[in-house]
Amino acid sequence: MSNENPAPGRTTPAHTTPRPLRFNAFVMNTTSHIHHGQWRREDAGQTEFTDVNTWINLAKTLETAKFDAMFFADVVGHYGDADADYSVYVNEGLQIPSNDPTVLLGALAVVTEHIGLATTSNVFQSHPFQFARQLSTLDHLSGGRIAWNIVTGTQDNGSRNFGLPRLTDHAERYRWAAEYIDVAYKLWEGSWDEDAVVKDRAGSRYSDPEKVHKIHHVGERYSVEGPHLPSPSPQRTPVLFQAGSSASGRDFAARNAEAVFIIATTPDVARQQIEDTRRRAVEAGRAPEDITFYQGLSFVIGDTEEEAQRKLEEYEQYASLDGYLAHSALVDPDGRVYPPETPLKDLETNTQKGFAEWVSKAITDREPVVADIAWRSHRNSRVVGTPERIADQLEEWQAAGVDGINVINWVIPGSFEEFAEKVLPVLRARGLAQSEYAPGTLRQKLFGRDRLPETHPAAQYRGAFARHEDAVPAGA
Ligand SMILES: Cc1cc2nc3c(=O)[nH]c(=O)nc-3n(C[C@H](O)[C@H](O)[C@H](O)COP(=O)(O)O)c2cc1C
């Protein structure tokens, strides 16, 4: 690893060069991802998300700017219950229509060389045998640049699209995820020995049957015999991203994740969340630096503070309260989205409880209402100002323990072009952004190794299935 890319998570003494932050472009294969209403702007290229060139051009822009990864969020339904007023989602282009990000990564893998490519996939949306095969294929195609954002679902509607009655109970979702990922680890790490592919033309042996193993997984939900069909890809297990915030979500992240996404309201809140998850990771037998944290932020950049404020007003004019409310999924027990004027004290909902309590406490001069939640979630993760002022604030996030930033966009590609043109040079001058990519796979770039370390739970499956009777019979 070059000096510019020391291992993340380690504190740098004050007299040495600062540690660069990591930067991901947070995107979704749809029109309206986070900042609802902005698609109506003339410069909003996200309306053309079905055109592969929108993404190819953006990937190239990001690679030129040395972004670490392009990270695609995804959902498999709309927010709220099945009976919620889904005309809002449709009117707003709010994550519908949307296309599958995992398929798109295949195209992006061949037109890029360095940038990491992260997809989101829910544990109930595909069988782990099939999903593990898809990601191994992408990891081969991209030369080892794939990451997986492991999600357990947030939507009743999405669950019903896969035959479930509703969103599975929270604790049960994480038990499900634990088995799902266990199957994937067995396939990725244990099914093939490192030197199994021999391509021995004279000996008429493509792979060595002694070195390809069935996994014989039998669990609560899955029964998977194996072997994994793809041979080992450059990273084997893709880089593992996760975004759980509850206690069970943090435990899952602490055990499995290499990069955790947070949207903390302040650097102090981030610090607490990071320290808590790192403590859990150490309890799970991992090293503190094996797990990194990315704060989601959007930027309003001006050459002067006045210009930044003027641009902010422009974004505000396009912002859609209906969209933020629908995305917040504040639904009543009948599945209807709550009217914006509903007092928070009258809310009866199972989602966003922690955030509602925080907003209730923050507003003391009047009755807090549902609209406040939508507006606060819109406002609390944005940074407004000159590039220098933005760099100052990023230093504060870094001092709180944040390793990287998930850059949330207003418009594609403009938000990323502007960040690359105006903010990254200032960050580079302060040693806070990389100027070149480190060579190798995404994990090599981020952590200085191609494969998961021995302290990771997936490592237990290396060599675990290497019994002779499990080998594929010759000629099968
Ligand atoms: C930055 C960020 C990005 C997320 N992206 C997705 C996503 O793309 N798809 C999804 O289903 N959930 C996504 N989530 C939701 C999380 O996976 C998780 O369900 C949520 O944070 C609640 O955590 P908990 O399940 O531990 O309570 C995201 C969360 C955060 C903070």
From TrEMBL:
<dbReference type="InterPro" id="IPR051260">
    <property type="entry name" value="Diverse_substr_monoxygenases"/>
</dbReference>
<dbReference type="InterPro" id="IPR016215">
    <property type="entry name" value="NTA_MOA"/>
</dbReference>
<dbReference type="Pfam" id="PF00296">
    <property type="entry name" value="Bac_luciferase"/>
</dbReference>
<comment type="similarity">
    <text>Belongs to the NtaA/SnaA/DszA monooxygenase family.</text>
</comment>
<keyword id="KW-0288">FMN</keyword>
<dbReference type="InterPro" id="IPR011251">
    <property type="entry name" value="Luciferase-like_dom"/>
</dbReference>
<feature type="domain" description="Luciferase-like">
    <location>
        <begin position="46"/>
        <end position="403"/>
    </location>
</feature>
<keyword id="KW-0503">Monooxygenase</keyword>
<dbReference type="GO" id="GO:0016491">
    <property type="term" value="F:oxidoreductase activity"/>
</dbReference>
<protein>
    <submittedName>
        <fullName>LLM class flavin-dependent oxidoreductase</fullName>
        <ecNumber>1.-.-.-</ecNumber>
    </submittedName>
</protein>
<feature type="region of interest" description="Disordered">
    <location>
        <begin position="1"/>
        <end position="20"/>
    </location>
</feature>
<keyword id="KW-0285">Flavoprotein</keyword>
<keyword id="KW-0560">Oxidoreductase</keyword>
<dbReference type="InterPro" id="IPR036661">
    <property type="entry name" value="Luciferase-like_sf"/>
</dbReference>
